[in-house]
Amino acid sequence: MSGIVTDNQGRSSGLVKSGVTTYDDNKLQANVALLGFKTAVNGSLAKYSLVDQIVDEYVDATGVDAGNSTNELLTSGVYKGGTSSTPSVTQDADATGTDGLYTWYKWTATGAGSYVNDTTQDHEYLVLAGGGGAGYSYSGAGGAGGYLAATGLSLTGGNTYVPVVGAGGAGATGLASGTVGTNSTLTGTGITTLTAIGGGGGGYYNDSGAGDATGGGSGGGAGGTNGGPENSGGSGTGGQGNAGGVSGPSGGTGGEPSGAGGGGQSAVGSNASGSGTATSGGAGGAGINNDITGSTVGYAGGGGGGSSAGTSGSAGTATHGGGAGSKTGVGTAGTANTGGGGGGSVGSTTGGAGGSGIVVLRRLTTITTLGSNLTLQSTDTTASTANPDYADMVVLMENAEGTATLNTDIKGYISEDSGVTFTQGTLVDEGTWGTDKKIIAFHDLDISAQTGSAMCYKITTHNQSAGSKETNIHATSIGWK
């Protein structure tokens, strides 16, 4: 017998036996920590303190002691073991910019440039040749410049790479086909030279079959004919562009002739069509959209063919930088730095010139390498009473790759002397909070051998390897008494 219990009016109500079981508050502490995590998330809070307890949801790095942590990478509220570096680049691009996590470099002036990255890194690229010029007089349109674009091009650190931008081909000024566009290239040690082929020249008006267009990245469209043999479109280069359209008796028998459309990256150029005074120039083959700089731009469209001068005729249309055909005079030039083919002309007039090419490189601004062992130490929080004897830790962790063995691959420690002395706790699994996500904790860790009031924690990960074992930390709470 250890005492007498009274009611609220002081009357004796019985005897109390000694040896009453001590209340286990471990679940309560864990639930308080989880509620703290939810509060931090909902309020976008950084590290904050309760009475003899701290909660850190890693909204930012405020609660982490960077000087005593190693390989700590914070991404969207998650600490991962890894390293990051920012490569240094020397280049003479005509324009540079950023798009999210990426930096891009764009060469637009014709001729050669230079690019050197001090770090070996994968790049996305766009190499686009100059578009072809249109032919002379009722002319076929120029074909688009050859188009090359892909990701995963590894450029070796320290090597010099040379981007070369090709010029657009000139439109013909006499009875001739348009000039083929100039190739664009990317060269350098350690890569296979990337060569985009210049767009083919458009054909010119000729009834003898001699006004054929020329081939290229995309082929030029055929020049008009008035009852003679069909004139052929130029061929395209596999993987870079398509053929130009053809024109022949079906395109102008008994009336004014029209030219065919130049080929584009995504489609062949259209044939000239109609008869009599209602002939129409062929539409340019469609190009392609590319957002390598973060903005969507149309590239490599074929030019539109020149039309007859008849009142019912229509000039060939064009997209993605190709020049439109004309029914009144000189064809429209392809847009600069799109590789668009030049538009065809009508009558004894000059064909439109092809648009110049472009070279663009894009890389991650910062390189992140995962799979490093992590040491994550918190900043200090002052205990309300010095020299606490016991401590608890609750951690939200994730097995991003593989499965961490508790107390082997992930360990937890508490200090009350600002990290001079740490005591390791034995982590146990207390449930899940999502796929591959665990609530791990220890309770009533004896820290009485330490002295002080500067409370902090340390979490370490071990045996980490990119792609096979990556242990992430989403939130941590510690308490003491």
Task: Explain what you see.
The structure is a single chain. With 481 residues, this protein is mainly beta. The protein folds into two domains: 164 residues, Jelly Rolls, CATH 2.60.120.260; 279 residues, no CATH class. 4% of the residues lie in helices and 33% in strands. The strands form seven sheets. A six-stranded antiparallel beta sheet has the order 3-4-29-23-27-26, covered by helices on one side. The protein is rod-shaped.
Characteristic key phrases:
2 domains; 6-stranded antiparallel β-sheet; 33% strand; 481 residues; mainly beta; 1 helix; Jelly Rolls
Q: What would you say about this model in short?
A:
The chain is mainly β and about 475 residues long.
Compute the CA-based radius of gyration.
36 Å
In terms of per-residue confidence, which ranges show pLDDT below 50 for 5 or more consecutive residues? 1-21, 39-45
Q: What about the largest sheet?
A: 6 strands, antiparallel
Distance between the termini: 30 Å
Beta fraction of the residues?
25-35%
Order of helices and strands: EEHEEEEEEEEEEEEEEEEEEEEEEEEEEE
List the helices and strands and how they pair.
Elements: E1 3-6, E2 12-16, H1 26-42, E3 48-50, E4 53-56, E5 72-75, E6 78-85, E7 89-91, E8 95-99, E9 102-107, E10 111-112, E11 115-117, E12 121-128, E13 147-155, E14 160-165, E15 184-188, E16 194-196, E17 288-290, E18 297-299, E19 358-364, E20 367-370, E21 375-377, E22 381-382, E23 390-401, E24 410-415, E25 423-425, E26 428-434, E27 437-446, E28 454-461, E29 470-480
Antiparallel strand pairs: 1-2, 3-4, 4-29, 5-6, 6-20, 7-11, 8-9, 9-19, 10-14, 11-14, 12-13, 12-19, 14-15, 15-16, 17-18, 21-28, 22-28, 23-27, 23-29, 24-25, 24-28, 26-27
